[in-house]
Amino acid sequence: MRNRAFLPLIEQILMIVVFAIVSAVCIGCFAKSREISIETELKDRAVVLAQNAAEEFKAVGSEKTITRYYDFDMSQTENGGVFTVVCDPIDDEDPFLETAVILVLSDEKPLFELKVCRQEGQDG
Question: What digits encode the pLDDT tens for the residues 73-84?
Answer without folding.
Answer: 888 888 888 899
